[in-house]
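Hey Z.,

So I finally got round to the fe (ii) ion thing we talked about over coffee. Here's the setup:
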Amino acid sequence: MSTAFKDYLPLSIASITDETVLGFDLYQPGADFPKLYRSKNIPITATDLEKLREMGQEFLLVPQHQRFVMLDHLCESIPNVIADPAIPTEKKYEVLTETSVAMMANLYEDPTLPESAKFLIKHAHHHVSLALANSNAQNVMLTGTIEATPMIAHAIHVSNLSILLAMRCGITEAEELFEICLSGLLHEVGKVLIDSKIYEEGRSDRRVPHRRLKSYPKVGGDMMAKAKVIPAASLRAIVEHQERLDGTGFPGNLESDEISRSARIVSVCDFYDETIRFGEHNITPKPFSVLSHLKQAPDKFDERVVLELIHLFAESSQS
Ligand SMILES: [Fe+2]
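And the result:
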């Protein structure tokens, strides 16, 4: 998106119901700059939506300064999108992901705002709903792309992967899956708090001294605790996701059973996606290499969790 569009957020038209007053302005992408399509108090009609679809216009733009109203709208409308049998799963995933990207961008802009955490609390349930919908939805969540900055795409994919892996590990309670999902979304917020340039400059966390960076899980967990809305189990997994079973992790050098089950799941997903996405840990950033490395490190990662991750990818490639 060109710089003329940087002050706007995309909104998929699949999330818009006709004849509803949205409370925020909608702009249409133009060649040079967005053009006002509909003022905030005038609803979009069914005919408008049909014309937009005919034109291939899948999204409209919302000004950044109206983002909280838009996020509220998305929190309300996504359950209908997920439940609608007429909407293809890929489209549902796209709408869900676009919303997650907007919410994560909002959080990383200022992680100290309690509103940002509150929006994510509402939204994390939608990730779980889609994962519980059917095996096709699970496959799309495992393999789908995420259009976002690398740091945001990483958080969302770790979250999705953690839900799917938790389900494979026998966790079926929606509430526990929601807690794990939230940990995935929030696991790196401490890095942004330590140095906002890590986010602004695209996750260049090598700019921060390693010793200081090692405090990020605790810094992030402490900040999210201040919002007073994040479940304790989620906070614990945020703080523990860099711990390793042999006590070589950080920030607490916890060992084996001292690390929660949720944190073990998020840590495997985090390690996997960091290696593939950012080429970290001096391992070839290919799925087979990363899975082999994880399998050969039972002293650091939960063996059963790693085995289930291998099964998850193996079954997905066969479907
Ligand atoms: Fe991470």
